[in-house]
User: Which sequence fits this backbone?
């Protein structure tokens, strides 16, 4: 996304409107949370159940500019209670250009309510599909209590949804819902669309986010497969090296044994030769002695 994030401001001192039928959306409010950053600033997040590569996953969504550091637990305020989410061994996906972050939610986290993504986001002409729908964003403006902003879509172009709605700082990461379709999600609220029209806002279209998550999962699988093959090759090389070293040792031992046998044979031959020489010499000596004594040996 080429358009950089534009921080929101309070509009004429007004806060986003609170939806009149609050009870109707009570469950959906509990599917949102306030995300508290390390610098104590805050944004909005929401829990969403969706299919990724035909696998049903539960995720916490927000903006990348709200949450982009993952070296510690994530602190949220949910149902007026502060809670920490341990992110160790969880699937995390983020993209600075698309300005989204999603984190896997486990059953043990005990979050009971989730948004669902509208299936029509995959239509070839989403702008035509949603042109009569009223939008609602559930947000934590200024880091305070959850409130509703209402509006209509102006334009959908690839990854961006442009719409008119009231929001302010702290609203980033809110779900963009369809009021006319049981609050199904079609995107993530990001901020102002430009500096000229303060009521014109920009969000990230959910179709592009899901496609990016799928790509990142495939890339991670490819990298894991590649690393696995590299590890196998290292093990195989190590095994081959061990086998070669073992064979070399065996050959060396055989050579040593053969050398020892050859050396023993040589020594035995020398001993035998010495014995023969000694025997011949002794015979000559004995013969001389006998001749001197005039003893004839036949």
Assistant:
């Amino acid at each position: 996304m080429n358009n950089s994030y534009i921080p929101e401001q309070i509009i004429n001192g007004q806060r986003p409107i609170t939806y009149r039928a609050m009870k109707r959306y009570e469950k959906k409010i509990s599917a949102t949370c306030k995300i508290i950053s390390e610098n104590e600033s805050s944004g909005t997040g929401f829990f969403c159940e969706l299919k990724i590569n035909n696998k049903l996953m539960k995720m916490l969504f927000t903006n990348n500019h709200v949450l982009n550091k993952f070296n510690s637990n994530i602190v949220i305020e949910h149902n007026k209670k502060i809670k920490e989410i341990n992110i160790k061994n969880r699937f995390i996906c983020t993209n600075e250009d698309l300005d989204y972050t999603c984190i896997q939610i486990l059953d043990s986290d005990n979050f009971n309510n989730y948004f669902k993504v509208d299936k029509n986001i995959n239509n070839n002409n989403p702008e035509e599909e949603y042109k009569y729908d009223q939008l609602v964003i559930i947000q934590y403006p200024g880091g305070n209590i959850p409130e509703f902003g209402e509006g209509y879509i102006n334009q959908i172009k690839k990854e961006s949804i442009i719409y008119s709605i009231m929001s302010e700082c702290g609203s980033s990461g809110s779900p963009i819902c369809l009021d006319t379709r049981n609050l199904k999600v079609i995107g993530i609220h990001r901020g102002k669309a430009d500096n000229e029209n303060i009521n014109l806002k920009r969000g990230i279209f959910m179709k592009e986010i899901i496609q990016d998550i799928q790509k990142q999962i495939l890339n991670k699988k490819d990298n894991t497969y590649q690393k696995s093959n590299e590890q196998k090759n290292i093990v195989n090389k190590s095994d081959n090296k061990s086998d070669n070293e073992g064979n070399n040792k065996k050959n060396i031992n055989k050579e040593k044994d053969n050398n020892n046998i050859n050396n023993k044979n040589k020594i035995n031959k020398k001993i035998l030769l010495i014995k023969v020489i000694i025997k011949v010499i002794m015979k000559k000596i004995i013969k001389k002695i006998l001749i001197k004594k005039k003893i004839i040996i036949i």
In short: Residues 58 and 271 are 89 Å apart (CA to CA). The mean pLDDT is 80. The chain is about 30% helix and 30% strand. The helical segments are 26-29, 126-129, 206-292.
